[in-house]
Amino acid sequence: MAESPPDESPLVFEDPAYRDAVVDLLGAVSYGEISAFERLAEDARMAPTLEDKVAIATMASAEFGKVAALHDRIRRLGADPFEAMAPFRDAIDLFHAHTAPSDWFESLIKAYVGDGLANDFYREIAAFLDTETRDLVVASLDDEGHAAFVVDRVRAAIGADPRLAGRLALWGRRLMGEALTQAQRVAAERDALSALLAGGVDRPGLDLAAIGRMFTRITERHAARMEELGLAA
Question: How does pLDDT run across 194-203, given as a tens digit for each residue?
Fold first, then answer.
């Protein structure tokens, strides 16, 4: 693979701590996309129809297709993408190990709710980045309309069997708990990300109250997704 051109970085990249935080975030998002690709490709085997199988496979392909741009940005910042992803492998793999779906509908909820929670967390952090990096991160989190497929399938299933709603609502709450646990773990264990959230002399940051409000916003968006699915949060 040809080397990427050197990054024409804004002045903020003269701060090594900021650069490390950006590389951390891009590494986390990158591994998250790769992990989502693997999970969705596996979930496609549970699809009840060929149309559903193709829809999930398309979602998986879209996730993997976002990795190259993230890796290119990491290289432009002088870091190795695989080294950048490595610190997040355990946390992300642990989340997926603890939330393995038992059937097709649980896999749909996880694809919509679980990925949505992670994406909300990354969007919150991206708000503290330079414009180019923020735009790249936000673009990589776009579901490209795939959410409509999940909402349609879940609502139709609940309409056909209302008893399904209770089980899926419990599953959504479990995903919420696991996702918040892992997000807090990542933020706490990575000094660069913690420093980014804390801010600096020339950068705004979050105090403990603001961090609490951030997780409140994430919780509220989760509740909105559950409501869209026809489930209680």
Answer: 777 666 545 5
